[in-house]
Amino acid sequence: DPFYWSIDLVSFRIGDKEELGEGIWNKGVKSTLASEVSGSLMQEQQTPKAIVDTGTTFFTAYDGLFEKIMEKLPCRCCDQINNATHPDITYTLRNTDGDLVDFVLTKNEYMSVSKGDFCKDQKYCSTDFMKINIPEEHGPAMVLGEVFLRHFY
Question: CB neighbours of 17 closer than 8 A, spacing ≥ 6?
Fold first, then answer.
């Protein structure tokens, strides 16, 4: 896509559950768009995209997916968070050679800690996702911002 630094996002998983990817996209999401876009664009956009952006702080997800993520990985007092409540997230990307590469982030890597009134004298953990709807002709897509980049690049 000439508008973004994008790579094929083969899968986005929370724990073992795929939330976005070629498997999800090809099982029905794509069919709702088929009547709305041309066949050539449809062929190009069958695989979701990961957009790498140093100007975005957080991870992003589009409307619908963002709410799923926040439901599965809610912000809460840090003492209430563990591997069962907040499993690893995995982005599976396709490199230029066509190989699949998993980028796994733990709760300590995809969450921020702050102090606030929410938890009295305890620390509060926030999930580092924000909602951004990438224009349909360039998506579906998720942005991998600085939270991602600082761990891998």
Answer: none
